[in-house]
Amino acid sequence: MNSSLISKIEKARRYAAEPERAEIQSLEIRFRGDHDIHEVRFANGSWSCDCHSFEALGLGTCSHIMAVERLLGALAPRPADQAEPVR
Length: 87
What we know:
Distance between the termini: 35 Å
Structural class: alpha+beta
Shape: elongated
Number of strands: 3
Order of helices and strands: HEEEHH
Number of helices: 3
């Protein structure tokens, strides 16, 4: 393997071990729920979902957003009012 590629792989591993280096600014995900397909988005510092529960409950979250946050783990974007300072 090319030594330059090996160096890039090692750098990528180091970066991946430090998730605080990355910050998701916007995200669009198609989520297959039990009853329908939903569009989950993070943009302008807040989450949204086109499901009925997101609008009806007015909580700023729903099961689809919570599932995406679990899937993303440490990289899950936080709403602007809950964001931690960038280090």
